[in-house]
Fold this protein.
Amino acid sequence: MSIRFHSALGQRHNRYLLMRHGHSQANARHLIISTPARGLAEYGLSEQGEAQLDALLADWRWPAPTHILHSDFLRTTQTARRVAAHFGLEMQAEPRLRERDFGELEGAADSRYRDVWVHDARSPEHREYGVESVASVAARMQGVIASLEQALRGETVLLVSHGDPLQIMLTALEGRLLTEHRDREALLPAGIAVLD
């Protein structure tokens, strides 16, 4: 799946491919795995996720990346490693691309995401259940692009991250209210959005 849009924030020096990790063991088990304590070493790609990456790489339809940065969670690291090997690139862990911390819902059924999203629609600053606020996620994710804009020119950068952080960042880059992040089209596992 691919999404293309033009940012409301104007011209950038680089092109960015925003990629959600492939289907993971956490997805398969319908669990929220959002903290480094569990996400760094556990819950990597599922067999379905590996197959998604096989198909994606066999039919790559996007510009070839020149740099790859990824969340250091296992599922995103494994996704980035597959793409990096395909293009013969090094990859770099970037903790600011990590999953949104879902606080006390860590390890709970993924149906509990909806409980958080109800509060997200009311306030981008809320911290119900001890979750990381939408505003905080948007700031750290946009900070990655801001840093790369200072460091690079004319590159195609693949950023491998997670569903909620990517949806929040795309909402922010479109100039929409952060409370509307669940109203925009979501990236599916192994989905890619292109920032032109």
The helical segments are 25-29, 36-39, 47-58, 74-87, 113-120, 134-151, 163-173. The CA atoms of residues 123 and 179 lie 6 Å apart. Confidence is low (pLDDT under 50) at residues 1-9. The chain is about 35% helix and 15% strand.
